[in-house]
Design goal:
Length: about 220
């Protein structure tokens, strides 16, 4: 299992109780520490790919072999973790909001308060419920994995009316919630979900997401 989506931000000056007087290797620009098997990490990689940040670097972390720099920067070892010069940020949701403000083009959140509130509500459900459920469906074996797959299929079917016939999740503008859905939908073949009923709206929306160049770049 991957760490739950919880955490906050800190700076490089934070001292680790596990590594005394240690400093991370010198680095410039932006580094994203990621696990290859984490949906939360994939979500953030998609956001980063949409922003097309020059010099951004992905550093892969094996959960069974902690990265020294990550241990110093973030002793909780939460993934993903973003290091931007002296700023260290986690978890995924906070990283993605930071990236959207730090690199405003293309904008992945709406300008008006009401639309931003709707986006935050959608992100809350994705972060708290759907992405962790999909992660369990991918990671767990036996009865627990089967139960997670069934629950995820039911949740997706219940969400059918929310998938737009055209455009994106909350309207005509692509946003952070679409990035999260893209991460989840990219794993549907691996999950092997069996969803009864009319799933054409879901499939058409997923197809639009997965054809975006940035999504394909992040997945590939």
């Amino acid at each position: 299992m991957f760490p739950a989506l919880s955490g906050d931000s800190m700076t490089l000056r934070a001292r680790s109780k596990y590594v005394m007087d240690a400093k991370p290797a010198p680095r410039a620009g932006l580094t994203l520490f990621c696990s290859r098997d984490s949906l939360a990490c994939l979500w953030t990689r998609i956001v980063l790919a949409e922003k097309d940040v020059d010099g951004a670097r992905i550093e892969w972390v094996n959960p069974g072999k902690p990265n020294h720099d990550l241990l110093v920067l973030n002793p909780t070892l939460d993934l993903p973790t973003l290091a931007d010069r002296e700023t260290v940020i986690h978890p995924a949701g906070i990283i993605n909001e930071y990236l959207d403000e730090r690199f405003p083009h293309p904008k992945l959140s709406p300008p008006d308060p009401a639309a931003r509130a709707k986006l935050r509500m959608a992100l809350l459900r994705l972060e708290r419920d759907l992405l962790p459920l999909a992660q369990r469906a991918l990671s767990e074996k036996g009865a627990e994995g089967k139960a997670a797959k069934q629950a995820l299929g039911e949740a997706l079917l219940a969400s059918q009316r929310m998938f737009p016939a055209r455009g994106w999740f909350l309207g005509l503008d692509y946003n952070l919630a679409d990035c999260a859905w893209a991460a989840l939908f990219s794993q549907l073949p691996q999950l092997g979900l069996k969803i009864s009923g009319d799933v054409q709206p879901l499939l058409r929306y997923a197809e639009r997401l997965l054809h975006r160049p940035a999504v394909r770049k992040a997945i590939g």
